[in-house]
Amino acid sequence: MPAETFLPPAADLPKADIYDDLKSQLDGLMAGETDLVANAANMAAVIYHGLSELNWAGFYFMKDGGLVLGPFQGKPACIRIPVGKGVCGTAVEQGVSQVVPDVHAFPGHIACDAASRSELVVPIRVGGRVIGVLDLDSPVPGRFDEQDRAGCEALVAVLVDHIG
């Protein structure tokens, strides 16, 4: 699917339908492409423009034992995050998605954008190893729930299916 044919899902759809739509569009955008950075860049744009109430959507990838900023949409972000620090580092350390309704209540939260109030981080696993994370921030407290977690895990699975 050519990038210019991306259409954000209607905001009034049920969340499950929004994620199904995004998953289908990502699969089409990534068809025939295996480059991680290219696919992550398009995925960040699709998520940022396809989900409501986000102020940041992007990736951090493992490099030299820590997370390094990858493709994203939103304001400039923290460049390096140690494993075990903040929501992203915790997701890597624990190997599970993190749904944080109030980032100010999260011990050790790293504030890259003071406007962020809630966060969702999904580890990206290839061959049993975490290679990075998908990170979403929102200025709305409690923006993310278990449906968002499941939906974003499904989107990450599309990315993993399309990298070489």
**Order of strands across the biggest sheet?**
3-2-1-6-5-4
* Sequence stretches where pLDDT stays below 50 over 5 or more residues: none
User: Do you know the CATH architecture?
Assistant: 2-Layer Sandwich
Q: Mind summarizing the main beta sheet?
A: 6 strands, antiparallel
Total number of domains = 1
CATH topology: Beta-Lactamase
Number of strands: 6
Report the total helices: 4
The portion of residues assigned to helices is 25-40%
Query: What share of residues are in beta strands?
Result: 25-35%
CATH homology superfamily name: GAF domain
Q: What would you report as the Rg, rounded to the nearest angstrom? A: 15 Å
The CATH top-level class label: Alpha Beta
Helical/strand content category: alpha+beta
Note the run of SSEs as H and E: HHEEEHEEEH
